[in-house]
Design brief:
Number of helices of chain A: 4
Number of strands of chain B: 0
Low-confidence stretches of chain A: none
Mean pLDDT of chain A: 90
Strand content of chain B: under 5%
Helix content of chain B: over 70%
Helix content of chain A: over 70%
Mean pLDDT of chain B: 88
Number of domains of chain B: 1
Oligomer: heterodimer
Strand content of chain A: under 5%
Structural class of chain A: mainly alpha
Amino acid sequence: MKQVYFLTKTALRWVVTGAAAATQWVLFAMALAIFYDVILRYVFNRPTVWAMEIGEYALVFLVLIGTAEVQKQKAHIRMDYLHARFSSGMRRYLDILFLLLMALFSFLLFWTSLKMALTAYRYGFTSNSLLETPLFIPYLIVPLGICLLLLQVVIDIAESFKEIINRRLMKRKEYKRQVTG
Amino acid sequence: MSTGFIVVVCVVVGLGLLALGCPIFICLGMAGVVGIFLEGGTEALFLLPTAVFGAVSKFTLVAVPLFLLMGEIIFRSGVASDIFDACSRLLHRVPGGLAMASVIACAVFGTMCGVSIAAVASIGVMALPEMLKRGYNPRLAAGAVCAPGALAMLMPTSVLFIIYGELARVSYTKFSVAGIIPVLLLTILMCGYIVIRVMISGQTADRKRETEPLTLQEVLQIIRRLWSPFLLIIVVLGSIYLGIATPTESAAIGVVGAYLIALFVYRSLNWQTFQATIVRAARVTSTILTILVGAVIFTQFLNLLRIPDSFAHFIAASNASPWLTMLLIQLMLFVLGMFIDGASMVIITTPILLPTVLALNWDPLWFGVLMIANIEMAVITPPVGLNLYTLGSISKDVNMETILKGTMPYVVVEIIGLLILIAFPQISLWLPNMMS
């Protein structure tokens, strides 16, 4: 059981880190693509038909695929004025509450956005442009990214509980040592 | 269930979570989801992803990661030290010149990089030790770095401008230049404060000036070192202003230009710094725009119940003086800014306040400048003032108390600046209106 958990955790860490690396290269490619489009438009008067639209999808990728990494780094913006003043125990329980809410939120968004992508696939929706992108492809970025976030949050929750249990065990051991000693 | 009850439940849930330190996008997202569920049932929830996708996949917003990336490259290129060097040499015969050089360098660097804490960190790391070495009052020195760093936020390359422009549905091309004259105004006010402060201060070190005049050779040297970043910023801003390229396209030009400058002029770009730039820019983009995802959901809920509109009608019908309303809104933003960062503030408050702004016939461009000028104070007011902590973390020579006491006068300076901007909308609107 322990081993399965450890393997899952390591695998997920790799996936999230890999996804984050992908977002960085997507960002770089996006900058180059738009620059290329500018040059074609203003120098050769022949703009690409794809740069703008792909740029928009790339932004969705950047934001939603990257959000799991932000969670892994505990870097989501929050107002921590009060939070920093609570006792460490209180903070730990609050953080678990926030993680549970985040899990619920991600689950809802995952479920509904997956349905959006599937609907777009079933009815063959395409984008309203020259490119006529099958919309289910960019739509799929949303559930994919949110799914990563959800998995990361689940791991975070498991880690938090593990920490609390370990702390309890330590305290009990210490208590026993004091009693017997 | 009555509308009022739903609103109260959701706002209480959202604010409660926010105060306790829950990540902002979850506070907004959960409050929105609960509200939409109570009002429209499960069916309504399935409309959310389309709204989220629509809000994020905007070509204007693509400028956010691009300008962030450009800022990161400029930040790591070493341009900052040259800019400060040039400013201090140009001003070295003026009393308090070094402090003013720091203010002006922050404003100039801010134009290139658009990130407030980057300006504080890169100018502060040179300006502060230099001022202390020359015997400046530590408070004066700390303040002259911490407060002007925020000027970056009013520049066209600032992310706050892009986000406000998108959310307020104003033309970002026009809006982006609206902050330039207000920045000049604030820079002059800050320099004015330094002059007064230095004149009445008992410390002669602050007033001491160098005697040797600036030589032509020195000027040429400054030009030789700084022509490329200045050319870059002229190309980026010029192409936006003249309508040659959209802001997103200009940002892409800026990214490529900044890489070229870092690579060939400053020779500071290696594989490691290159990776660091894309890593940082990608992560910050995701961090900021994830809040937008939450905010879109929250705004959907508010619009479902027509709350911003009702609020606007209420304000318009109350016959309160528009000036009083403006002052109250600014006061509210000021208090909110003490606790929350700038990007989150723009994302949360713009959709709520916009109908009111329109109902009172205020120009949304003008209001945007005022909101962001207000956020300038947010980053230097405790308890959550990013610039204060940034300076604190890069400097061992001054403690938090000195930084705080040195920076507080600038809050007054900025309040004066804000009041001037409120009284004379033309300061913010002249440049955008000049554009065809």
